[in-house]
Every structure is written in C-alpha cells, then in structure tokens.
Design brief:
The protein is of the alpha/beta class and 264 residues long. Helices cover 48% and strands 16% of the residues. The protein contains 13 helices and eight strands. A hairpin with a 2-residue loop joins strand 5 and strand 6. Helix 3 packs parallel to helix 7, helix 5 packs across helix 8 and helix 6 crosses helix 8. It starts with a helix and ends with a helix.
Length: 264
C-alpha cells in the first residue's frame, strides 16, 4: 500500500486522492462536540465509517497524537511510568513500547480499515516534536530538542511503525510544524527504511508545505479558506498528485458538501 496505489485507483473515483484531516470537523458535526472514542474499537470504527459516508476521503486520516493521548489520559499509571526516569527519550520509548496501548491501537486501526474499506493515513508528530511532547506529558520537560536528540527519538518511532506492518497504510505524515528546529526526512533513515520495507509513502509536513522523497507523489495542502468560502475554486486548489486538507470545525456542512463535489 502507498500513495501511488491510491493514485492508480482512488476508491472514490476522483482523479487524484483527497486526504482529509477531519478530527475537529467530525467532532463538531458528526459527534456534536463529544470526543472521538479512540480507545473503544467498535465505537471508533463506527465513527470513522460515518466520516467515510459523510466526507468520502480516499484514505482515513488517523491522528496518532490524539489516539495515544486518549490512552495516556485513561492510564495515569502509564504517565507515571513515562516519568519514572529522566533519561532523554525515556518517556517516548515507554509510550511507544507499552504492549496494551500497542495492541489496542493496532486492533482499532485494523478494524477501522476493514469497516471503512479504506487505506489509512497516519498523521504523527515528527521525531523532534514527539520527543518534546512526550517529555511534557511525563512531567520531565526538556530544555532543548536538537537534531541529535530527534535522530535518536526516530529509532523509537521506526520501531513502533514496524509493529504496524500488517495494516493498509498509504501515507506516513510526520508533522514538524511544531518542532523546535527545522526537521527534514534526510536524517531519519530508520523511519524511511521501515516505510520502504512496507511500501508506505513517507512525507514531512513543514511550515512551507509537505515534502516527500525524490520520486514520490507531490502532496499539496488545500487551505481552510476553501471550506470557508473565502477563495475562488481555481485559485485554492494546488496542482499536485495528492491533496491534503483540514476542514475547520466552524465550516458549514452544506458548504463543505458543495466544495467536496468540486473535487472530482
């Protein structure tokens, strides 16, 4: 599975895949403000099937940070374990190697994919951003996250991704927009090797856009103004192989459906 396989045959029949970060919008519209039930497999599968029926994305967007935050919120013992040592990277490693969280996450992701008959997009923090965030959750904040520390953290991320190898994942999207330094894919060979082994597309989301490896499909960001009605259609849509977008929670459901109809 990969972004290229989506391009070859989009499940929706669109001429290019549309990948929608729906968490805020679906929480507001589908769930009427109640949180997405990340830790309940059956309820999560039902939620994402509603998202598929409503928005019809070409792959289901899984916000991994929200998924794992739901688990840590329900597991004070896990947070305590994450903060048990002050060693750099220990909180992230503890989180990503917790067997109960891993098993529950895999079960949920597999069930969502089977229920919706869609591939998955895993949206996760970049290694540097995730390292810092995990230390914050554990109560052992770092004074600095630099390239060397982020590179070490990428090993834990790669090992975690490797345990998801049976899942139909089209794209791994590392989000570095909140990172404390300018991250790129280049140093993260361990993550790239895992993605290559399973034929997943890997990309990094920086402030200036989404960047993949040479030869991978180009990914454009369709801005929130498209859904708010503040831009003309022709000027709002990038001419790229794939489109990524986030629908604002305040967007009118009727307008969202109208705009979706234009992305054929």
């Amino acid at each position: 599975m990969s972004a290229k396989s989506l391009m070859a045959a989009t499940p929706t029949g669109r001429r290019r895949p549309l990948l929608i970060d729906d968490a805020d919008y679906s929480t507001a519209v589908v769930r009427q403000g109640t949180p997405i039930p990340w830790t309940d497999t059956a309820l999560a599968a039902g939620h994402f099937d509603q998202v598929r029926a409503l928005l019809d994305p070409d792959a289901l967007w899984i916000d991994v940070r929200r998924l794992l935050t739901a688990h840590t919120d329900a597991r004070p013992d896990l947070i305590a374990s994450m903060g048990a040592r002050t060693r750099i990277g220990y909180p992230l490693r503890t989180l990503l190697t917790d067997s109960d969280v891993l098993a529950a996450s895999r079960e949920m992701l597999e069930t969502v994919a089977k229920t919706t008959r869609r591939q998955l997009l895993l949206h996760l923090p970049s290694p540097g951003a995730w390292l810092g965030a995990a230390h914050e959750v554990a109560g052992t904040p770092l004074d600095e996250v630099d390239a060397d520390r982020a590179d070490n953290a990428s090993i834990y991320v790669a090992e975690w991704l490797g345990r998801l190898g049976s899942l139909p994942i089209a794209l791994i999207l590392l989000d570095a927009r909140d990172a404390s330094f300018a991250e790129t894919l280049t140093p993260y060979t361990a993550v790239a090797n895992v993605a290559s082994h399973f034929d997943w597309t890997l990309a990094m989301w920086n402030d200036d856009g989404i960047h993949g490896a040479a030869g991978d499909p180009s990914i454009g960001v369709l801005g929130p103004e498209f859904w708010a009605g503040g831009a003309e259609f022709g000027h709002a849509v990038p001419e790229t192989d794939l489109l990524v977008t986030s629908i604002p929670p305040s967007a009118s459901p009727e307008h969202v459906l109208d705009q979706l109809a234009k992305l054929t």
